[in-house]
From TrEMBL:
<protein>
    <submittedName>
        <fullName>EAL domain-containing protein</fullName>
    </submittedName>
</protein>
<feature type="domain" description="EAL">
    <location>
        <begin position="24"/>
        <end position="279"/>
    </location>
</feature>
Length: 281
């Protein structure tokens, strides 16, 4: 009868919930040891200047080499890291590693290299270990402000408070560029451009992909580029995979491109080799 079915559903429900909870707890426990066990590494995805094809920018993207599960992508652990606060230590690690790498590359292979770092809301709201520490670290380690760029998302600005804009303003005043990531996927993006200091705007890959199929998206893409130009903001198109997307964006006056068509995110050695090759030619 109805009672029995209800009971079965209940059992089924609790089991899957228990499995999910267990999986999550294991992930959190593993994440806690990942830094000490040296399981994280950074890949660098080149950002191409669409006006002269030069590469003086790249985005740092974290990777987790899990001892038993293999490679775990950031989408599978960054959200959990954010919920648990582990993101603070992870991002500090990313920041330090990027500063070290970019300083060396600027000295040896590419004096104007700039590496962008993804940041999380917690960084701007945690009163104890706030992002202001990064500015101090940059001063101590003599990392030029032009060497790094901070990527922020609209979700960060959505629950924006005064402390976030104050911190962003501090960074900008120190000479660190700010980019608005995944532009076009959130809400009321345009008002953020007015309220927050932004040097770069990254058009989300979903936009770039639909551009060749949905003519409205193409129009919107072009409008975003024109608007950004008038506001003095540089545009980066994310997720360029085809020659067609590349040529359309180039003809629209888009400044930079990032995507598999040019290069996948590269491990340290491979990115180093690419900079060497560029320097030689
Ligand atoms: P994102 O910042 O928007 O990064 C771009 C993502 O698009 C990367 O995924 C990149 O590998 C992928 N991508 C690049 N070119 C193409 C393309 O042509 N086609 C397609 N389909 N995808 C492309 P990834 O590395 O898996 O990172 C996912 C997200 O995880 C990032 O999105 C970012 O929000 C977050 N993330 C990555 N590294 C970090 C980090 O160090 N700290 C924080 N807080 N978040 C990070
Ligand atoms: Mg990003
Ligand atoms: Mg993005
Ligand atoms: Mg993102």
């Amino acid at each position: 009868g109805a009672k029995a079915i209800g009971k079965n559903n209940y059992h089924y429900y609790t089991k899957s919930m228990r499995d999910a909870a267990l999986k999550r707890m294991t992930l959190i426990a593993d994440l806690r040891h990942a830094i000490d066990n040296d399981e994280f590494y950074i890949v660098y995805q080149p950002i191409i200047n669409l006006h002269d094809q030069s590469i003086t920018k790249a985005e740092a993207l974290i990777r987790w080499r899990h001892p038993t599960r293999g490679l775990v992508g950031p989408d599978d652990f960054i959200p959990v890291a954010e919920e648990t606060g582990l993101i603070i230590d992870i991002s500090d690690w990313v920041f330090e590693r990027v500063c070290r790498d970019v300083c060396l590359w600027r000295k040896t292979l590419c004096p104007t290299l700039q590496i962008s770092i993804n940041t999380s809301p917690t960084h701007y709201t945690d009163p104890e270990r706030c992002i202001t520490l990064w500015l101090e670290k940059m001063l101590i380690n003599r990392t030029p402000p032009q060497a790094v760029l901070l990527e922020i998302t609209e979700s960060l600005l959505m629950d924006a408070n005064k402390s976030i804009s104050t911190k962003l303003f501090q960074f900008r005043q120190a000479g660190v560029d700010i980019a608005l990531d995944d532009f076009g996927t959130g809400y009321s993006s345009i008002s953020y451009l007015k309220r927050y200091p932004t040097d770069f705007l990254k058009i989300d890959k979903s936009f770039v992909h639909s551009m060749t199929e949905v003519s409205n998206d193409k129009v919107l893409c072009e409008a975003i580029i024109v608007m950004a130009k008038k506001l003095g903001i540089k545009v980066v198109a994310e997720g360029i995979e085809t020659q067609e997307q590349y040529h359309i964006l180039q003809s629209m006056g888009c400044d930079y491109g990032q995507g598999y068509l040019f290069a996948k995110p590269l491990e340290h050695q491979a990115f180093n080799a690419l900079l060497e090759q560029q320097k030689a030619t």
